[in-house]
Design a protein that fits this description.
Shape: elongated
Radius of gyration: 30 Å
CATH superfamily of the largest domain: HUPs
Number of domains: 3
Order of helices and strands: HEEHHEEHEHEHHHHHHEEEH
Distance between the termini: 29 Å
Oligomer: single chain
CATH architecture of the largest domain: 3-Layer(aba) Sandwich
Strand order of the largest sheet: 1-2-4-3
């Protein structure tokens, strides 16, 4: 099924050509004054040295009977031609769409690579209504973009890194790996997380172990990484069960968690430094972005690397953008 506005433009094109003496675009667009509007008479009038309304009338005279497609035509304003589709034309368009494999949806004339980042739950925590919203809307966007011909890359940016994993791994060790795997496997992620958090807040000894474990995780300790993978694996199994219930397309192949961008964080800082965008503020390395201000219109810093050497979420987000543009080719 052709676009109805293109069909109307093709129908009016010979009339415009007859008035102009050469091929001429009718410039048919949707309108809030009618179903559509042909605006080509204004540009044509300048070329012919005539009044736009006069040119518009000549076009309608040359078009003849168009009642099979248009219920009415009206010259409005300086020379716009308002177009109201006929019931027969609308019915034909709907019938054509109903019997079309593509339901009347045209493929994109400019397909490109699109990255859709959606769902993004946190490891060892249950998904909530915000994840439901993101998962469903994100998947709808993915399907729509694929349908019109774009190359779509799905990315599930799960929260699988950071300081909470020190307490989570230590809690896993305290429980025993088999018991922890069972608790996570039956979907009691919130219970697991809350127990770890409670111990972290109530026990200085546990808090010390948790902080030491974060250092081991960030340093690439083999056993710590193995335990971390257990948490990620059991959590993603739960995520996938939810995705299947929602008929969401996300799979393990689409996982691109925070941990995946760790190797890119230091290069982000260096790129900003080389571009002379990086500044120091209260011991942290920051970027001041035009328009990013507080209520008093004072510039706010975008923290790239904290005073203790740690990275902020903004650093990870910049790494994501760079990776998606340079590696995947998104635009």
């Amino acid at each position: 099924m052709a676009d109805p506005f293109i069909s109307v433009a093709e129908r009016l094109a010979p009339a415009f050509a007859a008035v102009a003496g050469v091929a001429c675009d009718p410039v048919v667009r949707p309108s809030d004054r009618a179903d559509g509007q042909a605006n080509g008479a204004l540009a044509l009038a300048k070329k012919l040295g005539l009044q736009p309304r006069e040119v518009a009338q000549k076009v309608l005279d040359a078009a003849g009977d168009v009642s099979d497609m248009l219920a009415s035509t009206e010259i409005a304003g300086p020379g716009f031609i308002n177009l109201v589709f006929s019931n027969t034309f609308i019915a034909d368009q709907l019938s054509g769409a109903a019997h079309s494999e593509r339901l009347g949806v045209r493929a994109s004339s400019d397909p490109h690579t699109v990255v859709v980042d959606y769902s993004a739950p946190n490891v060892a925590k249950e998904m909530h209504v915000g994840h439901l919203r993101s998962s469903v809307i994100g998947d709808a966007l993915v399907r729509a973009l694929m349908f019109v011909g774009h190359t779509v890359v799905r990315e599930n940016h799960i929260g699988d890194w950071g300081t909470p994993f020190g307490m989570l791994i230590e809690h896993l060790i305290d429980m025993g790996e088999d018991n922890a795997a069972h608790e996570l496997g039956v979907g009691d992620l919130d219970g697991f997380y809350k127990s770890a958090r409670r111990k972290f807040e109530e026990s200085d000894e546990f808090k010390g172990r948790a902080r030491a474990r974060v250092v081991m995780l960030q340093g690439g300790d083999d056993d710590t990484l193995r335990l971390w993978r257990t948490l990620v694996s059991e959590s993603t199994r739960y995520f996938n069960q939810v995705y299947r219930q929602l008929d969401v397309l996300l799979t393990d192949d689409d996982l691109m968690g925070e941990s995946a961008y760790n190797p890119l964080l230091a290069p982000v800082v260096e790129r900003l430094r080389e571009a002379k965008l990086l500044e120091e503020s209260d011991g942290a390395e920051v970027v001041f972005v035009d328009g990013f201000t507080n209520r008093d219109n004072e510039p706010l810093p975008l923290i790239i690397r904290k005073g203790d050497g740690g990275y902020n979420y903004a650093t990870s987000d910049l790494a994501c953008v760079i990776d998606r543009v340079e590696r995947i080719g998104a635009r």
